[in-house]
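## retry 2 of 3
previous attempt timed out at serialization; input unchanged, resubmitting
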Amino acid sequence: MNPHRAVNGVNYERIAVKTRLLHFGDDLCKAIEEYVLPNMKPGDWLAISEKVVSVCQNNVRHISTVKAGFLAKLIVKFVKKYPNDIGFSKAEKMQVAVEMSGRGRMVAAIILGALGKVIGIKGIFWRVAGNRVSEIDGFNPDSMYPYTEYAVLPPKDPQKVCRDIEQQFGMPTVIIDGNNINVKIIAQSSGMPVDKKTARLILLDNPMGQDDEMTPFIMVRKTS
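## retry succeeded, writing output
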């Protein structure tokens, strides 16, 4: 990972913060206090993986609780496959999405998504499916154990999480959904010095990594 990135003529340093393996139900703010706060400087802001937020909220599903149905197995036959990311190619992961979205809405997403592809419009499937199902992570055989066996659901009230962190530590915060395909800003606190579009560009190469780096926090520092 290149720690430096220029966006709109401004240079930023992205400082990856290595932690221990955070477990289900861990206290997120205590982890920030222990690993991030000692190295923060005035003007820095914090990017947090949505996955670690959900893990600390214990907002997960074990694969033993998921049985892929016909609809999930059908959908995964048509989802886009990526050489460097599992995406939604695993039926059990898609089943979690079906349960979150609802069968009727998911069927509508399939039909409208297919029509969108015909006319050259991408992303309709996920927009129609809604309920933030595109943020589901996990069931990845290449991940670090125990995430091979767990689906990590979208964090609960991410905007409040950002707000609470900024209020407690005076640290502007964003939560990101990052992988090897794309980076999306899920939520950000009011004190962020850049807008969501700029924050996304600063983090677009996913400096947190996607394997066993254990760097769920990125401190972003403007250098020029």
